[in-house]
Amino acid sequence: MDVKVIKTFLEVAATGHFGIAASHLNVAQTTVSARIRSLEERIGAPLLERSPSGASLTPAGKKLVRLAPSFVHLGERIAREISEQRDEQTALRIGLEHSFAVEMIVPWIRWLRETFSEAIVRVESGTSEDLLGRLSEASLDIALVYAPAHHPGLRTDLLKEEKLGLYTTDTSVRSVTHPDFVYVDWGPDFARKFEGHFPGFRMPKVSFMSPTLARRYVVECGGAAYGRVSLAKPLVTSGRVQLVEEAPVFLHPVYIVRPSGVNSTLVDEALHGLTRQLSSDRSP
């Protein structure tokens, strides 16, 4: 079933008119009519009731309207991935866990674009389990995650070991029990370590899934939160935040996960560039 035929049907359903749909799709009205007719023949039921004033959905048409967007999304994804796979050496699909550092990834992507000007680079985000699933399905080439579970067929290597420390904008806010403490969701592994160190902890009024937003909020609005030691150095130097020395520091390792037994020069060179970036604290 052709995706463009389904999209044509959805346009007619949305506008209620063959002529308007044809105008929106930049095709002839006869083309729209032909596509709808072929779709109805394929389905085996009328989808639209025609009238001089336009078109309305039949019961079968209403059901297809609910199902069609998923079909279009899947079809476009398949077409995009097949297009990228035509030349595997110029496609790099990267998965990042939600809390991954923007400050780390942006210079790397810039370096990739400058170094591999013909490469197609696609960056996706998700949970660790979701990204590992996509790697297993071969819809990703690399995933950068925290504490990944073991998956058959995937190779896991330590990229770096971050440290998370408690930073505050106010010397009176030095504990996770303070009302101005902001909880940052660094993932399940951090949550287990945090809860083990602070049993009975109650979630504060403000929490973030994005470390970048959490850092900005604390710097601008005040309070305390756990953040990356490496990224906090400029803020400490400027006096905008202070490290709470007596608070525990949590290790937060970052792993590279990729399909085992799959060789790709582009992936190898991309990861080499990322490693050099992290070891030198500047762009690769």
Overall description:
With 284 residues, the protein is an alpha/beta fold. 46% of the residues lie in helices and 23% in strands. The chain contains 10 helices and 11 strands. It has helices at 3-15, 18-25, 29-43, 59-85, 102-115, 128-136, 188-197, 211-221, 229-237, 265-280; strands spanning 48-51, 54-57, 91-97, 120-126, 142-145, 154-168, 181-184, 207-208, 224-228, 242-243, 250-259. β1 (48-51) and β2 form a beta hairpin. α1 packs across α2 (18-25) and α2 (18-25) crosses α3. The model has no long low-confidence stretch (mean pLDDT 87).
What descriptive keywords fit this protein?
284 residues, alpha/beta, 9-stranded mixed β-sheet, two-stranded antiparallel sheet, 10 helices, 11 strands, 46% helix, 23% strand, elongated
